[in-house]
Each structure stands twice: as C-alpha cells, then as structure tokens.
Amino acid sequence: MAGSRSDAPVVIAVAITGSVPRKADNPAVPVTVAEQIESTHRAFEAGATLCHIHVRNDDETPSSDPDRFAAVQEGLRRHCPGMIVQFSTGGRGRDPASRGLSLQHRPDMASLSTGSVNFPTIVYENSASLVSDLAGQMKQHGVRPEIEIFDLSHLHGAKRLVDAGLIDARPHVQFVMGVQNAMPAEEHLLDILLAETKRILPDATWTAAGIGRYQAVVMDWALTRGADAVRTGLEDNIRVTKDRLAASNAELVGLAAEAVSRHGRRVATPAEARAALGLA
C-alpha cells in the first residue's frame, strides 16, 4: 500500500477530546475551545502532526456547532503551523443532518465512517445515503476523508465510494480496534484487514487505533507492519497504566514518539505528514 515502508516517517495523529463526556473522569481531557487549542499545541510540540477534533456544547454534550469547529481550527492554524486539522463527522449524540455542517470551514481532513456498527450502548448508524452525502460534501469543499473502518464490510463501503467518484483511489484508512461490541483488538484481524485493503484499495495509506487499554499494543502492531501513521490521545484512552491517568495529550504523544523510535523509524514533520497523506 502507498507509503507503507519501514523507512518512511510516521505521522502521529492525536485525538484530543472525543464525543463522550469524560472530563469528570480525567480533568486533562480538554473540553472548551481554549482548552482544546492549548492541549493540541502541547501535543504538536511533542510531535503530533494531525489533530482529530470533536467539539462540545457549554454543558459538555457533543456539539455540531460549525462555529466551534472553526474557532478550534483558527487557533490551531495560528499556534500549530502546518498541523493537519481533521474534523469529526461522527454521530454519537449528533443529529445525522448536522454531522457535515462543519465541512464548510474546509479543514484539511474529516473522518468518514462507511457503515454502521454496534457500540457499547448504542448502534452507531451510518446509512449508505448518509455516507454518500458526507463524502459528497467533503469532495465539494476539498476536504480529504479519513475512512474509519470498524468492520471488514466498511472497506467495501470505501471501495464503493471510490467507484462512484466520491473519493479518490488513494484514501487514508484507519482501522479501529477494541471498541466494545465492535471489532476486537486481535493481531490476526489486523492482518486480514490489511490484506483486504491491499487487494481492493492498493494505493491507500493506513493507520490503526486501539481503544482504551489496547492503544499501545495496536500501535506496536501497526508500526511492525509499516503503517503510515499511528493514533493516540485522550479520546481513545485516558490511562498510561492501569493505575495512572494520562496527564495530557502531550504525554500520550510522547509515548507514541518513543514507540516510533523503538521501531527504527522517526516522527514525520508537518510537511512530511502532509505529503504522506496526499495534502498540499
């Protein structure tokens, strides 16, 4: 697959907040616009070159307010020069019709789930019509999608978007492993997913996200297999160890950078990250 070389620099993506209210569990999770900008700036200085963004309402519930997305993006463009800004179009707590509203602000990238899946307490619904609509909006606004893969069938959902001309033939694919009721974090499953991706989307770049206690192990599996990027951050995992909460997104990015080095690779610069993922 494109870019998946053992000597290529590695993009570190940081998912700073998530959509589930968790600030009471860990005060390090940034919620307000100012907190998100500051937390991301520190993560950028630690080596992150892609930021995945959710925003919250004043009561900390998930928000689709495009102005809040725009405010975070403005701060990141000012304080984190060259960092890839990626908006979430995820659906937890958000009306489907509002999930693409932020795309008018033209972030570099946006997440795009290509099928529905069971989550711990809900069904994460992504109907075929909604997926096509979001992909069309991304194409209209010049936003590069990151395809979120929670199930093998979602790869074929991405291939249908390629065949329909809604995304190009070099998508960036993220395998999400370890969500309760969804795809388990098992190493042999990553090999199956990679083999199918290579078969139907041979030019794709790729990464993998491990949720909760699986964050570090999935990162190691991905680096062993020459991933183009790794993902970390408080959205996915709020602990460094079973007994210790992470102090910040920057701490988790630092641990990711150490993992990259252990695997004989180096952390991508902002310019290298943009080149690797097909961005100007």
UniProtKB/TrEMBL annotation:
Coiled coil: none annotated. This is 3-keto-5-aminohexanoate cleavage protein. It comes from Methylobacterium longum. Its cofactor is Zn(2+). Keywords: Metal-binding, Transferase, Zinc. It holds the Pfam family BKACE. It comes from the Bacteria.
